[in-house]
Amino acid sequence: MSDTFRAYQVGKNDSGQRCVLTDLTDDDLMDGDVTVRVEYTTLNYKDGLALTGRSPIIRKFPLTPGIDFAGSVLESKHADFAPGDAVILNGYGVGESHSGGFAQKARVSGDWLVPMPDGLDARRAMAIGTAGYTSMLCVMALEHHGIGTDAGDLLVTGAAGGVGSIAVAILGKLGYRVVASTGRPEEKDFLTGLGAADIIERAKFAEPARPLAKELWAGAVDVAGGNTLANVLSQTKYGGAVAACGLAESMSLPTSVAPFILRGVTLYGIDSVMAPQAKRREAWARLARDLDFELLDSLSFDVDFETLPQAAKDILDGKLRGRAIIKLP
Length: 329
What we know:
Elements: E1 4-13, E2 16-25, E3 34-42, H1 45-52, E4 68-76, E5 86-90, E6 105-108, E7 113-115, H2 122-144, E8 154-156, H3 162-174, E9 178-182, H4 188-194, E10 196-201, E11 217-222, H5 226-235, E12 236-244, H6 258-262, E13 266-269, H7 277-290, H8 293-298, E14 300-302, H9 308-316, E15 323-327
Parallel strand pairs: 8-9, 8-11, 9-10, 11-12, 12-13, 14-15
Antiparallel strand pairs: 1-2, 3-4, 3-6, 3-15, 4-5, 5-7
Helix pairs in contact: 1-9, 2-3, 2-7
């Protein structure tokens, strides 16, 4: 009989979803050519939805949630990985249709894994997590567009959240002048400590957007969608760009073509789930190089594995700030 390991598992019946902390065996692991001992994971907004069942994130039952994990290879039939290798996983439907990081073991396709870059360890990799990896993809899109540090202010919406806070930290370290938008004015000191030069109230982006407004931003990272993104686009300077990676406010985009055809604004869609391996590895290498680890440590906090269900409720209720790190027991 296989050794048991601890895992959260979400099942579904006529009464709805139910999440339990239980013991599983290797026979419960899903298909894949690499088995990983999960050392650290993290808690994202999507994980909160999966654990609580507030949104139909999980598409196959029973399933272990957790869209991120970092750990070491136990067994491998994949040419790129051998036992003992340190690896990171983000996305590819893990935690949604394939069991993920809220367990002591995971079995996945080696094609989904990223080798741990020099300078990072499993704990800090999960302090970064999908949120930080997505932030770096946004930064890379703005850089690719040609927006330099002398172009003017860069806006980050949802700046006190996981994606936003790391975006502020990266852009600040790179030398950009960052304006942080948040609905929590009490977070001003936190955001300026990360590198924000100025703070702006989220409410300023809540009203329906005009087709064009005063040009304020050389570029932006947006996690909100909805009226917020529409307003950001209308305020983006001629030739500027917005990297959109979230829908915390809404999936809709009530705007016009005016910013695109009259100001030449570019809207980059940032997908972290199915991003190709080359882009993933570049993003993680950049994170190891361009993120201030002292700042990363300052915006990270520990969550006990056994209290994950409560933390899931807290992240959905906006009670958590920064990045949650979970060490597997």
